[in-house]
Specification:
Elements: H1 2-20, E1 26-40, E2 53-67, E3 71-84, E4 92-104, E5 108-120, H2 121-129, E6 137-152, E7 155-168, E8 179-190, E9 196-209, E10 213-227, E11 232-256, E12 259-286, E13 290-302, E14 308-321, E15 326-338, E16 351-365, E17 368-381, E18 388-400, E19 404-407
Antiparallel strand pairs: 1-2, 1-18, 1-19, 2-3, 3-4, 4-5, 5-6, 6-7, 7-8, 8-9, 9-10, 10-11, 11-12, 12-13, 13-14, 14-15, 15-16, 16-17, 17-18
């Protein structure tokens, strides 16, 4: 059934590409080849039985796009062929694909965004949630059609729907649970001035997992984005949320830190709910030779266990150009994962996550770049004294192919 859904997604991508193509349209393709070598001292990010290995990653990728007076399409495709020299059983071949398309009419616009991610739980899922129990192969695909009504150049109303399906390579002995979610949103956007944008958004996400747990996340929030100057901009949105969980004879995974302990069964039908707040704030400053961004957010999302988790996070990303060809960068993330009061998992997956990534980039020739980076990750569990840490260093050679264009 999941394979049929994946085939439908790829067919929709092909249809989206065809709808954006038209006579006199010009395709633009930006290919990139990336070769990365490094060392990871805890590949599976476990508190016990740590596995270390040198790693080599070959990543061909391409950005592509086409636009006509009334329609457009752009996308990103990347492969990661990852090989661990001391742990060949952990080798994997991953892919990320995202496609966005739109078609404009006299006073409205329709669009379709598609996504496909095949990787491990220590990649995109850890980036999204700051929460992981073990390293497993993961497949996620999504489809997001939307419709916008344009009242005038400053005001528009958008109705959107997103379907997401997540499955894992092994769920029986790990406590991971496959799940699907359906999200609907209604957004009103108004620009009272050229520097200010106001938004009002209402939405609801319904999730179902293979543990017979149905969850609902509803929210209403308002926000504003404002350009304080040509180099300084800020945004803030905040609102209220409600989560509700319904479960019936459900097997609930139990963890001690990152270690899966087994299942308990919640007998009979039960329904719990809780309320709270959601928010997002950011500040971006552009300097003559660099850029800094600071953001903080709180949201509710599905975690690896298949249950809703409240994620509060703080991120900062900074870059500085020491010369026209040499730059240094620093990223830092803190994420707190907390289970809403209505979840049957209780506090089994509550934890704090930290990540720091310093590095540098050197464009030594046209189209060629060498990068070096270090990444430190740590998870601190509420229900275990055994924390998890990971150190990884990488040296990367990148070749950005000159842009290719194809006219039709």
């Amino acid at each position: 059934m999941r394979n049929r859904g994946l085939i439908r997604l790829l067919c929709l991508a092909a249809l989206a590409a065809g709808s954006a193509s038209a006579p006199a349209a010009k395709w633009e393709i930006d290919p990139t080849l990336r070769l990365q070598a490094g060392y990871n001292d805890n590949v599976t990010m476990r508190a016990e039985k740590e596995v270390s290995s040198p790693v080599v990653i070959f990543s061909p990728s391409a950005r592509f796009g086409v636009e006509t007076p009334r329609s457009g399409l752009n996308g990103d495709l990347r492969f990661d062929f990852r090989r661990f020299t001391d742990q060949s059983n952990l080798d994997d071949d991953n892919v990320r694909l995202s496609v966005s398309s739109f078609y404009g009419m006299e006073q409205s616009q329709i669009g379709l965004d598609l996504g496909l991610i095949k990787d491990t739980t220590l990649d995109s899922e850890l980036e999204q949630t700051g929460l992981v129990f073990n390293r497993l192969d993961r497949l996620q695909y999504s489809a997001n059609p939307y419709w916008s009504w344009i009242f005038n150049v400053r005001t528009r109303l958008t109705l959107s729907y997103t379907y997401t399906d997540v499955s894992y390579s092994d769920t029986g002995n790990t406590g991971y649970v496959d799940f699907t979610s359906n999200n609907g949103q209604l957004s009103l956007v108004h620009m009272p001035t050229e520097r200010m944008t106001l938004t009002l958004t209402a939405g609801q996400t319904r999730s179902q997992n293979e543990g017979n747990v149905d969850s609902t996340f509803s929210f209403l929030q308002g926000g504003a984005t404002y350009e304080l100057s040509d180099t300084l901009s800020t945004s803030l949105s905040a609102g209220a949320r409600q989560t509700k969980s319904e479960f019936d004879n459900s097997p609930i995974p139990i963890y001690s830190g990152s270690l899966f302990q087994g299942f308990i069964t919640v007998p009979g039908q039960s329904e719990n709910s809780s309320t709270g707040m959601v928010f997002r704030a950011s500040l971006t400053k552009r300097f003559e030779r660099g850029r800094s961004n600071i953001s903080a957010s709180r949201n509710v999302t599905n975690a690896a266990s298949g249950y809703l988790t409240e994620i509060t996070r703080f991120d900062t990303n900074n870059s500085y150009n020491l010369s026209p060809t040499f730059s240094v960068n620093l990223g830092f993330t803190i994420a707190r994962s907390r289970t809403p009061d209505d979840s049957p998992v209780n506090s089994a997956q509550d934890r704090d996550y930290y990540e720091i990534t310093p590095g540098f980039d050197w464009e030594f020739e046209e189209f060629w770049r060498i990068s070096a980076s270090y990444r430190y990750r740590k998870q601190i569990y509420d229900n275990s004294s055994k924390d998890t840490a990971q150190n990884a260093t990488y040296l990367t050679l990148t070749y950005r192919w000159p842009r290719m264009t194809v006219s039709r």
